Amino acid sequence: MSQHQPDPYGTVLDVDASELDRLRLLERAADPGTVAAFERIGVAPGWRCLEVGAGAGSIAGWLADRAGAGSVVATDVDVRFLDDLAERGVRVLRHDVVADPAPGDAFDLIHLRHLLVHLPARRAVLDRLVSWLAPGGWLVVEDAHISPDLINRAAVRAARAGVVRLLSERVGSDFSTWASTLPLPLEEAGLTDAEVGATAMTVRGGTPSARLGQLGLERLSPQLVAAGILTAEDLASARTAFADPNLLDHSHVLFRAVARKPR
């Protein structure tokens, strides 16, 4: 497999000790909706499942429980948090979805979350994923749309806008248009029976969801300051606001698209 920067944001971020905490908080916020989508499409024992960008492994673990560990492949460019899955019998691979070959035979289910939004080649990657599906197989894509104006505290609003700008300029992330086009790209890639839903990931200051936002900001702080997007004072103000129970952040909407490959 190709060697790739071990971080979903490419060279912008450095690996640090808070990453597992961030991933666990993300799972806590998003997993219920993901699992509900799997239940609707009827994931069953024996389904061949691919989890792309497995992160800390919660969804791949759920799939192992439902489909059987031997039926699940979990991939990421950074697999250091997936040892327990490998011990359970899940096939864990360090794998770059942009460049590496298919990580197995045709799959009945492919899932990815918060990944295509960060890949400038997202349309080409989507075509690759569709080609890895078995006839009748399902693709589940989840990605974020961020509208910083929907934050009631100026410090967090500026910080969120700064993060969106930095990731757009340095990585090619698209938080403003990509997710809100779903499921159209899946249909354009030849999939059918498409459905889409959206969940507003509302944040109150001082809660675990606010901690998730703060961790993401802290990891990008050096780059934000170096790029002249935010100052140290801006970051300190945002840090204080994240702890304030009066903070209301409605900026993050998670779109979830489900579609099927024709038989």
TrEMBL record:
Keyword Transferase (UniProt): yes
Alphabetized Gene3D superfamilies for the sequence: Vaccinia Virus protein VP39
Any one GO MF annotation of this record: transferase activity
Superkingdom of origin organism: Bacteria
Pfam families: Methyltransf_23
Recorded coiled-coil stretches: none
SUPFAM superfamilies: S-adenosyl-L-methionine-dependent methyltransferases
Keywords: Transferase
Protein name, per record: Methyltransferase family protein
Naturally occurring in which organism (per UniProt): Actinophytocola xinjiangensis
